[in-house]
Amino acid sequence: MLGFLKEPVVVTAKINVNLVALTVMGLISRLWGLCYPRAVVFDEVYYGQFVSLYMKRIFFVDDSGPPFGHMLLALGGYLGGFDGNFLWNRIGAEYSMNVPVWSLRLLPALAGALCVPLAYQILVELHFSHCAALGAALLILLENSLITQSRFMLLESILIFFILLAVLSYLKFYNLQKHSAFSGSWWFWLLLTGVACSCAVGVKYMALFTYMLLLATAGLHFWHMIGDQNLSNVSLLCHFLARGLALIIIPMGMYLSFFYVHLALLYRSGPHDQIMTSAFQASLEGGLARITQGQPLEVAYGSQVTLRNVLGKPMQCWLHSHTNTYPIRYENGRGSSHQQQVTCYPFKDVNNWWIVKDPGMQQLVVSNPPRPVRHGHIVQLVHGITTRYLNTHDVAAPLSPHSQEVSCYIDYNISMPAQNLWRVEIVNRESDTDVWKTILSEVRFVHVNTSAVLKASGVIGASLPEWGYRQLEVVGEKLSKGYHQSMVWNVEEHRYGKSQEQKEREVELHSPTQMDISKNLSFMAKFTELQASWKILTLKNEDTEHKYSSSALDWITMDTNIAYWLHPTSGAQIHLLGNVAIWASANAAALVYLCLSLWYLLRRRREIYDIPEDAWQLWVSAGGVCGGGWAVNYLPFFLMEKTLFLYHYLPALTFQILLIPVVLQHLGDHLCRSVLLKSMFSALIVAWFSSVYFVYCTFSPVTYGQPALSLTELKALHWKDTWNILIRKQ
């Protein structure tokens, strides 16, 4: 029974020494001296703020993309015991002792290091020689810009890692297709493709283009499968469903999960609350939630409310009035009604309170039981402090003469009767009998007499002059075709009015609300709001020029660089600066590939085949992966209206670098026919690679920031006039 113990248990394993050696070299190149400098380096000042907010569980929105990359950086801080207490206000600021610098920079460095063996494996899966694959990995290893970007708390190395992982996983899956379909390894690599794609998109939206490239490739391969008569209809359906599950359903589910975790972690009120809706703000701990938690849910006749404009861009504002009137005549000579001003005010104020009144009754308090206001009901809005009624009439608005002036009515005993009836229209209603709800309902106020819609025009236009205290204009929009958020309002603060006397009511309006009913948004409601493009992508002002910003055309020839860090006293500095030999070779390889491809296509059109069919298919597939990866990660930047930096080019550069050994192997195999030519070609490759290593060593002091260089040595690095090498004045 125990006879198997008489023989030793033997485990055999195949170890790819090349892969192990490349991984070790990648780790050394990215992890060496990772804590240096112990100071804020370039965009660490930006991402560090979000890491601190994660540590403190404070809500934020970042315009650079989805939250997964930020969460990975925060994970490094969490593992290092970071408490979030550091003021990220200046590049070059020394880190305090509570900041775990090594831990914060670890994950980007690991991702950058693993890109080296990934490059090797991609070339192997494309069926190129191990020599070519080794060359690709060494080029990634010695590319100075990739080293610099991966050694700090930045996202590009993580993005590139997941992109390469997705490409490798799909290639492995595809190569298993013919002989091991639906096997365990087949499923593993297919599922990993979808997971890696979702992670890449979760880091930055730019990865969407690589994801679309892989989807298109998978679609093309499946199209070829349809023509395979050996596959049954059931088998084709199973293949289709497997790809749909792994490449579409799972990535979508993971994308949602990133936001679920993000929102679960960030449950406290934060710096970006103001761009979110009242309902979203009220779901966060602190801030607005302290004011609104437990307010009455249903708005009733007699309710005291503040009305926030839903648009909230460029700033949030509330319907507001004060005792001042519109000037009798405006600066352009037009006349006004001289009624009490109504504006949209971007700050909380007692003059933001309004009372919802039943036109058929005089009381300004909530009855018992309360009578809720429903969609389609007619109301009057009474300004809480001045007790004047919200009114509009056929008088031109101060800044928008095509719209009606909105005011609080003052009876001057002239032929201008009050027109103060408004119909409540709940925009997001589920039925025509819906009750107007606090925070949740988005409503339009339609003027009964003129059908004008109450609109915060100043939110998307100019503010009023000095006589209007620079507050935002409110108008009655007569031609209300379509839906615009500037016409939509929601109740933010709400109480049931109890005081009929004006003096008692003023005291009531100044007091905080205290109720017992809470309202929570679902995850999907929060997710949908976060996806609104103007909130995700336009939080920062992209119109401002940065000292180191550049155009996409500058990247090809590396006519620009970025100074990441400068030592306060010595000449030590860190730059995002590429390996000139590699960048020039990558451009040359792309040009050679394009020219040869056109030549082959023309010749094949004439039925002249210069290379075997399997070599042609290899050439095309490599171009689809490497050339296609470069194109989808580079060309979209020409269509983007945003501030661009050199590091945006690094994902495209990575694919372009992979093209170099593809072209070199092709030239050696098919154009160098004689032994002499092959020997000369090999010698040229050795000389070229020596130049790559020489450039790497030359610029490594500004890649790693050490050793500090003298004035003469710094000037010697000024290879291009457009580079900004920092020379400290003596």
From TrEMBL:
Recorded catalytic activity of this chain's protein: a di-trans,poly-cis-dolichyl beta-D-mannosyl phosphate + L-threonyl-[protein] = 3-O-(alpha-D-mannosyl)-L-threonyl-[protein] + a di-trans,poly-cis-dolichyl phosphate + H(+); a di-trans,poly-cis-dolichyl beta-D-mannosyl phosphate + L-seryl-[protein] = 3-O-(alpha-D-mannosyl)-L-seryl-[protein] + a di-trans,poly-cis-dolichyl phosphate + H(+)
One annotated GO molecular function: dolichyl-phosphate-mannose-protein mannosyltransferase activity
Spans traversing the lipid bilayer: 68-88, 100-120, 126-142, 154-174, 186-203, 208-226, 246-267, 580-602, 644-664, 676-696
Family (UniProt): Belongs to the glycosyltransferase 39 family.
Protein encoded by which gene: Pomt1
Enzyme Commission code: 2.4.1.109
Topology within the bilayer: Multi-pass membrane protein
GO cellular component, one term: endoplasmic reticulum membrane
Residues of the MIR domain: 296-359, 370-427
Species lineage: Eukaryota, Metazoa, Chordata, Craniata, Vertebrata
Organism: Dryoscopus gambensis
Name under which the protein is recorded: Protein O-mannosyl-transferase 1
Pathway annotation: Protein modification; protein glycosylation
InterPro entries: ArnT-like_N, MIR_dom_sf, MIR_motif, PMT-like, PMT_4TMC
Location(s) in or outside the cell: Endoplasmic reticulum membrane
